[in-house]
Amino acid sequence: MRCLELFQILKHKKAKGAFYLLFLFFAFLTTLNAKILIELYPTAIVKKDEVFLRDISKIKSDKDEIRLKNFLEEIVIVKFSSDIKKIEKNDVVESLKKNYIDLKNIQIIGSNKIVVKRATQKITQKEIADDIKKFLENRFKDIKIIFISVNKKELTLPYGKIEKVVKVKSKTSKNIYLDYIIYVDGKKKISLPIKAKVLFYQLVPYAKRDIPKGKVIKKEDIYFKKETISRKYNFDLDEILGKIAKRTIKKDSIIKSYFLSPNFLVLKSKNVKILYSGGPISIELMGLALQNGSLGDLIEVKNVSTGKVLKCKVIAPFVVKYVK
Predict the structure, then answer these.
(1) Using an 8 Å Cβ cutoff, are 251 and 263 in contact?
(2) Which pTM value belongs to this model?
């Protein structure tokens, strides 16, 4: 009763400062009576889709209420539907009620509104380029990377376990086109197209000496160097040996495929000797080549006597062998 009288006196005398102090005093007494004190933060950042009471507040309790405190910390207040969520103090109260919490011994103080943001993580443009570079060097052993084009300066992703997958979509002699795919906690979040400008290392054939026009290319006429070139050439050794130089090829110059022509031992529309063997019997026939042919090629040859077209193998200049 004396406290009430003091309250009325201070109010009537317009002792504003004293009135305010007295008000805080009563609030403090109320707080002392509470067994659980929940202090709400003005802002919070969370890593998961669910916002727990522990994420948005500081919870204090008496020693004998530690179990209740632990239970309160695990109460879900809301679930994220966007990157920013606003939670009212009343939302907290309703969540406590839904979990059958007796509010008589609980005091809630602090902010009346909490702005909650989802925690994010970033992948920089340099990190993306480094991932692509590492992938290309592991996937393609004979490659020189000129430039990697990444359109995004950085990627902003929700918090979680990140998994990166790089896939080759297509490639040319100068460019490789890729997909850079990001998963967060097993869910696909983004697929970023990447372009890498590259050069491929190849074994390039060079002339060991001057090769005159019309000469048949032999193994001792060439040597190989590993280097990058701007286009893909067919430098298979078997495609070079035995061919004829269509032009003079200077020493230490690249032997390109269009410098060479096939060394045909049989020419189309020219007479050839057909060898036929069946058991102990061997026969030589006169034939007419219907195709050009190099050593070992299978070509069609017409038997001049019968007019029948035979399948034959080139075994020597203007000599073929009948193949059954």
Answers:
(1) no
(2) 0.55
